[in-house]
Write a structure and sequence with these properties.
There is one protein chain. The chain has 137 residues and is mainly alpha-helical. The chain has 2 domains: 46 residues, no CATH class; 78 residues, Arc Repressor Mutant, subunit A (Orthogonal Bundle), CATH 1.10.10.10. It contains 7 helices and 4 strands. The strands form 2 sheets. It has a two-stranded antiparallel sheet. Strands 3-4 form a two-stranded antiparallel sheet. Helix 3 crosses helix 4, helix 3 packs across helix 5 and helix 4 crosses helix 5. The longest helix is centred in the C-terminal third of the chain and has 15 residues. The two termini are 21 Å apart.
Length: 137
C-alpha cells in the first residue's frame, strides 16, 4: 500500500528494512538479501502512484483524509463528523479531488483509491474488519 506514514512507523518500530511491493524498483529478494547482509533498506521516498489524471502527491493531506473515509462508504455528514470539519468542507474536498483526477463521481474516487491502495483505513492496518454495517465476511 502506498501509505507514506508506514515508513516512519517502521523506522520507529526499529524494523530492519521496509519495502512497498507494488511500487518498489527493488525486488523483495534483493531487499531480503541486503537485509540479511546487515543493511537497513528503506525507500528514498513514499510512492506517488497515478490516480486518474493526477498522482497521489497532487492531493492534500486533508483530501487524503476525506478520501480515506470515503472508501468506508461514509456519507458527507459522517465524514465531517469523523474529521471534525463541516459538511461543506467535505463537499469541497470531494469536488477538488474529482476535478484533479477526472473521475466522474465519489464512487469512482473511492473504488479507485481502494483498488490502488492509495489510502488505507486504520481498520485495514490493524486487521480489525468490523465496519458500520457489522462484521465483514
Amino acid at each position: 500500500m502506498a501509505e507514506a506514514e508506514w515508513i516512519g512507523k517502521a523506522r520507529r518500530a526499529k524494523v530492519e528494512s521496509f519495502w512497498f511491493k507494488e511500487y518498489s524498483a527493488v525486488s523483495l529478494t534483493e531487499v531480503m538479501d541486503r537485509t540479511m547482509a546487515g543493511e537497513s533498506v528503506y525507500p528514498d521516498s513514499p510512492p506517488n502512484p497515478a490516480f486518474g489524471a493526477a498522482v497521489k502527491a497532487d492531493l492534500s493531506e486533508r483530501e487524503l483524509d476525506v478520501l480515506r473515509e470515503l472508501t468506508r462508504n461514509g456519507t458527507n455528514e459522517e465524514i465531517a463528523r469523523q474529521l471534525g470539519v463541516s459538511v461543506n468542507t467535505v463537499r469541497t474536498h470531494i469536488q477538488h479531488m474529482l476535478e484533479k483526477t477526472g473521475f466522474r463521481n465519489r464512487i469512482d474516487l473511492a473504488v479507485n483509491a481502494k483498488t490502488l491502495g492509495l489510502v488505507v483505513h486504520e481498520d485495514d492496518r490493524t486487521g480489525n474488519r468490523s465496519s458500520k454495517g457489522g462484521e465483514r465476511a
